[in-house]
Amino acid sequence: MLKPGGWLIITLHGDHYLPHINVAGRAQYQRGELVVLGEEVSGQNNCAAFHPETYVRNVLAKDFEIVDFVPEGALGNPKQDAWLLRPKV
Asked: Cα–Cα distance between 52 and 32 in angstroms, integer?
């Protein structure tokens, strides 16, 4: 739920994590598809989702204006891509 006029900040695993994805998952990621590893233990730290930029732009944020995108912009452990979004008017 986002308040009218609200902005959304999300952080996601992006290109930085390509070396951590298996070969099949890497091909999927490079096609711009969401990759989920460890789906059988979803809700735990062993489950991880990797979001290519094209997937975020075309699917996840399709109803939002992308105000800013900073690859590895969320510093620390782990490094994640930072997205600033607001609903399209």
From this structure: 6
Q: Which residues contact 73 (CB under 8 A, 6 or more apart)?
A: 11, 80, 81, 82
Q: Which two tokens stand for residue 67?
A: 């105000």
- Where does residue 76 fall: left (phi above 0), alpha (psi -120 to 50 degrees), or beta otherwise? left
Per-position DSSP letters for 58-69, written without gaps between them: IIITTTEEEEEE
Q: What amino acid occupies position 8?
A: L
Q: Find out whether 50 and 14 touch, Cβ atoms under 8 Å.
A: yes
Q: Specify the 3-state DSSP secondary structure of 54.
A: helix
In terms of Cα–Cα distance, which of 52, 56, 72 is closest to 64? 56
Q: What's the whole-model pTM score?
A: 0.89
pLDDT in tens, 60-75: 999 999 999 999 999 8
Strand pairing partners for 22?
none
